[in-house]
Amino acid sequence: MQPTRKPRYCLQCDDGTVLELGVRDVTVTEGAVSRIAPDIAGWHCPKCGEIEFIDEDSSTRHMAVLDAVFEEVNADKNSFIRQIRKKLGLRQAEAGQLLGGGVSAFSDYERGKRQPHKAVVLLLKLLNRHPELLNEVRAVA
Ligand SMILES: [Zn+2]
Fold first, then answer.
1. Would strands 20-30 and 51-53 be described as parallel, antiparallel, or unpaired?
2. CA of 54 to the centre of ligand 1 (A)
3. What residues form DSSP beta bridges with 75?
């Protein structure tokens, strides 16, 4: 892409903030999780951090860091799933087959790669309060 001499304005701020062209380390933060995406080329907003990417590579690498941050946040959010599963004495594959989602579902939930269906969360919370119902679940599954 040809560099342009005309100033570019941040569409996010929408107040005339001028974007700065360059290569920067960009910090991606979500909740308590923070990671750095190094050497991101593009038009950077000095105010809100918005980036207009100028190459595919920077965009892809920034997206990968974003995904990793969200996975980590989700893994934190989903830590109760591992706790309850262990309390019930279920292996991941067993939990996925019994409560839904398939053999790899709980591995995905606990690593934050996938969000469990609301029904699975409700069932887990119910079993957390009444672990003795696990036998009932097994009987009707
Ligand atoms: Zn901005």
1. unpaired
2. 16
3. none
pLDDT digits (tens, 9 = 90+) for 20-31: 999 999 999 998
Q: For residue 92, what are its two tokens?
A: 């991941």
What domains does the chain contain, in order, with CATH numbers?
A: 1-73 (3.10.20.860), 88-141 (1.10.260.40)
- Ligand 1 centroid from CA 9, angstroms: 8
pLDDT in tens, 43-80: 999 999 999 999 999 999 999 999 999 999 988 889 99
**Dihedral angle computed from the Cα positions of residues 90, 93, 98 and 99, in that order, rounded to the nearest 10 degrees:** 90
Amino acid at 131: P
Task: Give the Å distance between the CA of 55 and the centre of ligand 1.
Answer: 19
Give the end-to-end CA distance of the chain in Å, rounded to a whole number.
Answer: 58
Look up the pTM and report it.
0.69
Considering only CA atoms, give the Rg of the chain. 22
Q: Please name the amino acid found at residue 60.
A: T
